[in-house]
């Protein structure tokens, strides 16, 4: 901003001059917007700031997170901070992962016409259509893997001509995959049993009651595990 | 910023920065062979903290003039909000007909709030008698932004006692022992709960893939790629929705209510969209409103979410809760220093626990990569401003390199992209490939170490008011270790939720009152505080000055 280089953008059709090289979110605030909706973590993790824009002379709509995407000259934008996409409630323990529960709970996934619009709308570059296809096959592991980076902004569901709620499908698939395909590690189970049996109580009693000098001495001489120990 | 735009960029960096990157590349092979610099001794740690950590600048703090922790020292930015007048006039609020009546009211929409809500329900409170209220959306919180991981002592060479010692040493022995004991003891149980909810932790051959964090002596950092916080938060949010607990969004609390016996009895909410207020009466209230990053203490950029403005702290303090360790602020060692468009956003500590080391502009390693956060941050500030070995960006920001290509060099090609997908994407959006080039970093405001005083059950000094997560203090003392905030919100969210449910079963709010706020105002006046500031802040204001000064309030 030191040399005052500005760029012109259009927020909901209205022109504003904003500094070049800043994010859409910062540009909207520079223009005078104070967000209630449309701003959350401001770091690309929460999905609050889904934004659609079209650039001058281009026919395509593009999709972005306002906190991550830089403004460009001639950008026409609006935010879509909320998607009316109903989800279905379920009791995780009562689901049978070997039945295709995704299709039962979200039958509209069968309406997918493989147009790939969802994938093009995803600001996280997720292969959304591919995981919907995996969901149709009941392949929970594949849905979990492909959808893992989903921040649930809702832009896929907003664009889908078949009215699929992709991100809800994926959320259910990941949790079901988590409880069905990935057993709890034995070392965790063992530690829980030890804790139940009070095996760590005496050691903690001693530390909780130790004075600072004692703690400092213990801390200074504690052994730091090296990475190779875990490998062996 | 325009400096950056005007310069021709090569792989996202201008030529001047490329010169320095060459020096980093030139020493990489040798540094990989030699391993990182040795950890500091206790004396060396104290020295670098005293001279370079922002907390140790005396003129950036003052003693609080009013309230239950009067005389406590804290940053001006926090004191300014505590020495401020209420947003609402108690005489204009009709408390005789509450708009909503619930057993357990939970203030907050992040991790601690969600955990508290679920455990209140597990304890037998009907879902319709629980209410979560939050300023933004359910899940707009710091919990969702945590990347690196969550600590829990569940491996054979580890134990809760070893975890305890790491926490105390990292916190300079100022932590409350009974809170740390709860933290480390409940850790494995919370991981087990996440398993049963279907959270997807990284595993190899049926075991968790666990790593070190700064200041840990055992590898106990559980992760879900570098989306650990998001994975946990979206699972918890999904479960709150499954159970059917009501969540009122865009409705921050602006004042707590007490009853005529002095017990917490609900809150006044403000609907951000319709601008009306609402009185909620509750038998028990849980404070899970998070921390203060958006106060930009000492002018630092922050990793925190938009709503991290310490509202809950202010409200609890007015209601009579003591606050502790507010003099201590966590600056994450590695915030983004380039490009300026994402200045201060988080570069997870996981980059370092996977092998990336901080390197100065001359290509020299200067600090052990996994010191406790305050020490690591101070060492980076010293390298830039004490030894003048930082790299200066076109926007005049100084930083040091985080040598990210070391990760694939150590663990094999493809590791960084699979274990640190979010980090790769963040820089890639700006044309920087961190598998090929290092990233420039500098400390950024990250966490409120202190907060509202609680006991091991989440009880504050106000009967019927419970707290958990970042808003509460004492767990981390003067410095939190990586991976203990996710653990904190789980352990103390659970404890606060259970305590609130237990309390609600045999207490009913009798007659709502704002007399505590009137008394607080009297205290402000007596201390000579001018009525120029109001609190809570609710949201920061990032509109440019020219717009704010021309603004008219006519609608």
Structure description:
The complex is a heterodimer of chains A (232) and B (555). In chain A, helix 4 packs antiparallel against helix 5 (140-147) and helix 4 crosses helix 7. Chain A folds into two domains: 6-79, Roll (Ubiquitin-like (UB roll)); 83-213, Fumarate Reductase Iron-sulfur Protein, Chain B, domain 2 (Orthogonal Bundle). Chain A has helices at 24-31, 101-105, 117-121, 128-136, 140-147, 155-159, 166-181, 186-196, 201-208, 212-220, 227-231; strands at 6-11, 14-19, 50-55, 62-65, 75-79. Chain A has 232 residues and is an alpha+beta fold. Chain B is of the alpha/beta class. Chain B folds into two domains: 2-55 and 330-445, Flavocytochrome C3, Chain A, domain 1 (Alpha-Beta Complex), CATH 3.90.700.10; 85-148 and 238-328 and 449-513, FAD/NAD(P)-binding domain. In chain B, 34% of the residues lie in helices and 18% in strands. Residues 1-5 of chain B have low confidence and may be disordered. The chains are: A alpha+beta (232), B alpha/beta (555). Chains A and B meet through helix 1, helix 7, helix 8, helix 9 and helix 10 of A and helix 1, helix 6, helix 7, strand 10 and helix 8 of B.
Write the layout of secondary structure elements.
The complex is a heterodimer of chains A (232) and B (555).
Chain A: E1 6-11, E2 14-19, H1 24-31, E3 50-55, E4 62-65, E5 75-79, H2 101-105, H3 117-121, H4 128-136, H5 140-147, H6 155-159, H7 166-181, H8 186-196, H9 201-208, H10 212-220, H11 227-231
Parallel strand pairs in A: 1-5
Antiparallel strand pairs in A: 1-2, 3-4, 3-5
Chain B: H1 2-6, E1 9-10, E2 13-14, H2 15-34, H3 42-52, E3 61-63, E4 73-75, H4 76-82, E5 85-86, E6 100-107, H5 111-122, E7 130-133, E8 150-151, H6 160-170, H7 177-197, E9 203-204, E10 207-208, E11 221-222, H8 228-243, E12 247-248, E13 253-259, E14 264-270, E15 277-287, H9 311-318, E16 323-324, E17 329-336, H10 350-353, E18 358-359, H11 373-386, E19 391-392, E20 398-402, H12 405-411, H13 415-419, H14 421-428, E21 439-448, E22 451-453, E23 465-467, E24 472-473, H15 484-505, E25 512-513, H16 515-526, E26 534-535, H17 545-550
Parallel strand pairs in B: 5-26, 6-7, 6-15, 7-12, 15-23, 22-24
Antiparallel strand pairs in B: 1-2, 3-4, 8-11, 9-10, 13-14, 13-25, 14-15, 16-22, 17-21, 18-20, 19-20, 20-21
């Amino acid at each position: 901003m030191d040399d005052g280089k500005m760029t012109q953008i259009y927020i909901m059709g209205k022109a504003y001059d904003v500094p070049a090289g800043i994010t859409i979110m910062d540009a909207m605030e520079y223009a005078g917007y104070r967000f209630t909706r449309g701003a959350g973590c401001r770091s690309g993790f929460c999905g609050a700031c889904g934004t659609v824009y079209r650039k001058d002379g281009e026919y395509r709509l593009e999709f972005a997170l306002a906190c991550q995407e830089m403004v460009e000259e001639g950008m026409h934008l609006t935010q879509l901070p909320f998607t009316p996409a109903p989800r279905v409630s379920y009791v995780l323990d009562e689901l049978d992962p070997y039945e295709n529960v995704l299709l039962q709970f979200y039958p509209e996934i069968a309406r997918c016409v493989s147009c790939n619009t969802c994938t093009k709308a995803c600001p996280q570059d997720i292969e959304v259509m591919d995981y919907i296809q995996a969901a149709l096959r009941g392949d929970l592991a594949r849905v979990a893997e492909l959808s893992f980076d989903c921040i649930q902004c809702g832009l896929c569901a907003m664009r889908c001509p078949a009215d699929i709620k992709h991100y809800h499908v994926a959320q259910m698939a990941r949790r079901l995959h988590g409880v069905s395909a990935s057993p709890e590690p034995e070392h965790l189970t063992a530690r829980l049993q030890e804790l139940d049996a009070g095996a760590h109580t005496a050691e903690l009693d001693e530390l909780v009651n130790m004075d600072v000098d004692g703690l400092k001495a213990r801390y200074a001489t504690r052994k730091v595990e090296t990475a190779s120990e875990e490998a062996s | 910023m325009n400096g950056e735009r005007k310069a021709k960029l090569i792989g996202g960096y201008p030529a001047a920065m490329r010169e320095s990157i060459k020096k980093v590349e030139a020493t990489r092979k040798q540094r990989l062979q030699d391993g990182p610099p040795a950890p500091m001794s206790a004396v060396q740690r104290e020295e670098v903290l005293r001279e370079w950590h922002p907390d140790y600048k005396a003129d950036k703090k003052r003693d609080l003039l009013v309230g239950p922790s009067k005389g406590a020292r804290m940053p001006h930015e926090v004191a300014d909000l505590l020495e401020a007048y209420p947003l609402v006039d108690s005489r204009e609020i009709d408390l005789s007909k509450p708009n909503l009546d619930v057993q357990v009211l939970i203030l907050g929409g992040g991790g601690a709030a969600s955990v508290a809500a679920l455990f209140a329900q597990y304890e037998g409170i009907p879902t319709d008698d629980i209410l979560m209220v939050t300023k933004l959306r359910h899940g707009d919180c710091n919990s969702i932004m945590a990347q690196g991981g969550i600590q829990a002592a569940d491996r054979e060479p580890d134990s809760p006692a070893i975890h305890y010692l790491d926490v105390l040493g990292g916190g300079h022995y100022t932590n409350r022992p009974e809170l740390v004991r709860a933290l480390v003891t409940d850790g494995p149980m919370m991981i087990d709960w996440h398993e049963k909810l279907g959270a997807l932790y990284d595993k190899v051959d049926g075991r968790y893939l666990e790593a070190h964090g700064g200041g840990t002596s055992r590898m106990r950092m559980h992760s879900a790629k570098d989306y650990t916080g998001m994975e946990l938060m979206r699972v918890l949010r999904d479960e709150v929705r499954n159970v059917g607990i009501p969540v009122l969004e865009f409705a921050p609390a602006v004042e707590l209510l007490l009853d005529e016996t002095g017990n917490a009895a609900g809150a006044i909410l403000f609907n951000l969209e319709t601008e009306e207020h609402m009185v909620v009466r509750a038998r028990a209230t849980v404070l899970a409103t998070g921390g203060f990053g958006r106060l930009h203490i000492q002018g630092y950029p922050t990793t925190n979410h938009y709503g991290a403005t310490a509202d809950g702290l202010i409200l609890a303090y007015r209601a009579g809760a003591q606050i502790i360790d507010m003099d201590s602020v966590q600056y994450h060692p590695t915030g983004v220093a380039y490009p300026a468009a994402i200045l201060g956003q988080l570069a997870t500590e996981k980059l370092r626990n996977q092998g990336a080391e901080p390197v100065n502009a001359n290509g020299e390693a200067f600090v052990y990569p996994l010191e406790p956060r305050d020490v690591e941050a101070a060492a980076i500030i010293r390298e830039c401003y004490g030894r003048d070995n930082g790299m200066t960006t076109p926007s005049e920001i100084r930083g040091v390199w985080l040598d990210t290509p070391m990760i694939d060099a150590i663990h094999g090609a493809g590791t960084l992209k699979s274990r640190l997908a979010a980090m790769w994407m963040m820089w890639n959006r700006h044309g920087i490939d961190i598998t090929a080039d290092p990233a420039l970093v500098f400390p950024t405001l990250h966490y409120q170490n202190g907060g509202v005083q609680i006991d091991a059950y989440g009880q504050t000094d106000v009967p019927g008011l419970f707290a958990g997560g970042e808003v509460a203090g004492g767990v981390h003392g003067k410095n939190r270790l990586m991976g203990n905030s996710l653990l904190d919100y789980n352990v103390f969210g659970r404890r606060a939720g259970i305590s609130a449910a237990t309390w609600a079963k045999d207490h009913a709010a009798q007659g709502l009152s704002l007399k505590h706020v009137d008394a607080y105002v009297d205290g402000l006046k007596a201390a000579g505080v001018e009525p120029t500031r109001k609190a809570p802040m609710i949201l920061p204001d990032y509109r440019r000055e020219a717009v704010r000064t021309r603004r008219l309030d006519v609608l």
